[in-house]
């Protein structure tokens, strides 16, 4: 990690119109169209994508995963060697920590997500603990640092993309080094040939193009931990780390959209409203629906197509409405006591804004 002085520090938060920098990021990094909420497992091309720098070039035959640091036996594993280890598949919902950022005011100038930076995949690979056991953890082990092949400059710091996991998280049974998504090889944009998948945590933890695991004897303080991905009310404070996903529910907008505004028009009711909901903080316990902008709420019916505690659950709600204008909302609650707020909770980086979705709908005669 090297500090450069390029005169390219991050711009301050703004209330102004979307900048070209944000538009450029938005065009590279796509969200999941909300109608794709109909699929319990998100088709690969519809899963959201977030790439901080460039998708790196990878030569499969030259690829090795190295494991070093506080281990008894440093490793260098080919993909075939990883595939020969016991396999594990986990259906897991992943959401970017910046989801909802563009709806904050002032907003951090970064990837300007609205609400759809989410997707669910069947991630198949080797459990991280299997590889760590093969290497043999030393008593001194504290963090497992995952480093990607991609490199770039962020806030004047030249870096490889790196995130670390505390040992207790790294040893969880369902943490996967994935070489497959939805039954096929990982596509380039999702981390080919190998990525880390940490169910329950926000997206940034799931290091793509994974090249090395380094076990450290002290907590990791790299850029994506100490500078980025922290809840701060002031840019100069230390802040607290962004970790697990807060509960969120999303509604597949009913009816048909207006091309430009995407306002919805519904011909007649009753309409079966459908969506999905998840939480990385606890078990999802309820989803409620409102058609009056969050004044009166009614319970939705939860479904469980995937049967994975790490994947979103479906929900449905039979909506009976007369002609008129409505604002549909949904909110999720988990058993850790979290519920989606009606108004966003602001922070400098624009992280974890899980305020309820609002979908204006006109029911026509
Ligand atoms: N190596 C590397 N891993 C990365 C990133 C990255 O830029 N480089 N982006 C992270 C972020 S911020 C998110 S939200 C997820 C996005 O994963 P996806 O593109 O497969 O949806 O990957 C994470 N892993
Ligand atoms: Mo992200």
Structure, briefly:
The chain is mostly beta strands. The chain is built from five helices and 23 strands. The chain has a six-stranded mixed beta sheet. It has a six-stranded mixed beta sheet with strand order 15-16-23-22-18-19, with no helix packed on it. Strands 4, 5, 8, 9 and 10 form a five-stranded antiparallel beta sheet that branches.
What does this structure look like?
The protein has 365 residues and is mainly β. The chain has two domains: 20-241, Oxidoreductase, molybdopterin-binding domain (Sulfite Oxidase, Chain A, domain 2, Alpha-Beta Complex); 248-364, Sandwich (Immunoglobulin-like), CATH 2.60.40. The chain has helices spanning 20-28, 79-83, 128-135, 167-170, 223-226, and strands at residues 2-3, 65-69, 75-77, 87-95, 118-127, 143-154, 157-166, 176-181, 184-185, 195-197, 210-216, 230-231, 240-241, 248-251, 256-257, 264-266, 271-278, 284-290, 298-299, 301-302, 313-319, 324-334, 357-363. It has a six-stranded mixed sheet with strand order 1-7-6-11-2-3. The protein has a six-stranded mixed sheet with strand order 15-16-23-22-18-19, with no helix packed on it. Strands 4, 5, 8, 9 and 10 form a five-stranded antiparallel sheet that branches. A hairpin with a 2-residue loop joins strand 6 (143-154) and strand 7 (157-166). The longest helix is centred in the first third of the chain and has 9 residues, at 20-28. It starts with a strand and ends with a strand. It binds ligand MTE and molybdenum atom. Molybdenum atom (MO) is lined by residues 50, 96-98, 203-204. The ligand Nc1nc2c(c(=O)[nH]1)N[C@H]1C(S)=C(S)[C@@H](COP(=O)(O)O)O[C@H]1N2 is lined by residues 47-52, 94, 96, 148, 150, 161, 190, 203-204, 206-209.
